[in-house]
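Give me C-alpha cells for this 363-residue protein.
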Amino acid sequence: MFTVLRPSYLIILFSTIIFIISCGEDEIKEEVLRPVRYQKIFTTGGASERTFTGTAKVGIESNLSFKVGGTINEIKLKVGDLVKKGQVLAKLIPTDLSLQVKEAEAALKEAESQLLNAKNNYNRIKQLYENNTASKSDLDKARSSYESGSASAERLRNSLKLARQQLSYTSLKAPADGMIAVSNSEINENVQVGETIAVINVGNEMEVSLGLPENVINRVNKGMNVKVNFSSIQNKSFDGIVNEVSPSIDINTSTYPVRVIIKNPSKNLKSGMAANIKFSFSSVSTKELIIVPVNAVGEDSKGRFVFLVESESEEIGVVKKQHIEIGELTKEGFEIVTGLSVGQKVATAGLQTLLDGQKVRIK
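Here you go.
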C-alpha cells in the first residue's frame, strides 16, 4: 500500500535534495587561477644602443653642366663609365660662338694694324720734334693716337680671349677621375646654362646620410665611432665615423642631418644602398640603468604601465597595475625613469587579459 504525499511535502523534499547537491559541488569546486610568467627587474651598464636607417652615397658627387646654352651634338657618357680628368664627355653645336671668335680675331687684326701705324707715326713725329721740325702739339696728337690705339687693341685682345673661352665651354670635360652615376641628356637636346646633364662620383670615399631625432642628436658628436650594416651585404659589418652633425633641423623630415664616413669600404658598396647605423651611447649619469623587458610594458589612457607580481605563496600571487615613465629603448629593454625598483617582479605575457588586483598562479 503506497502513501500519497501532499504537494507541500514534495516541494520541501526537492528543495532539500537540491541544497545537498549544491553544497557538495561547492565543496569539490576548486578556484581556477590564471598562470602568469614574470621576470625580475634588473640593471645594466650605463651604455645603450640605438639603430637608425640611412642611405649610402659616394663622398663627392659633382653635377655636370655646360657653362653656355646650346644644342648637344655629341655625347660620350653612359652610367657606369669610368672617366679621366679632362676627358671630353659631351659637346654643343659651336656655330654661333665660332663666329664670335672669328669676328673678334678680325677686329683685333685691324686694331693691331692701326696701332702699328699709330706707333710708327708717333716715332716719326717724336724724331722731328727732337730736331725742332715738329711742334709740341703735333707730338701730343701723335702720342694720343698711339695710346688710344694701344688701349683699343688691348680691349679687343680681351674680347677675343673671352670669345675663345666661351667657345671652349661648348665641350664638357670631366673635372676629375671618377664614374658616371647619372646621365640625363641625349644628342640634339637643347640645354640651358647650368642645367645638369650628368652626375659624376669622384673618389673612393663612401658615406651614409641619415637623420636623427631631437632626443638623440645632442648625444652624437663629430668623430664618434659607429657600426654600419647593409641588408644587401650579408654577414659583414663596416666601421664608420661621424663626419658631420647639422646644427639645424631639416623641416621636411623633422630630423637633424648627419653624415657618417665608412672607414673600410668595399667594392660591393653602391650609392643608394639602404644602411643601418648603430650608435652606442653612454648614460648621462654614472648610475646603472633600471631595465624592464619590452613585452612587460603596456599602454593605456594614462600612459605606460606594467603589472607587478606580488607573491602570496610559492605558487600564488596578485598582480597590481603600476604606471611608469620610460626612457631610451636599449637592446635589453626599456630604461625606467620612474615607477619601478630593482628586484620587483613584472608580468611578461598576457597583459591585455590581466586585471588590477587579480589573483594568479606564478610560473
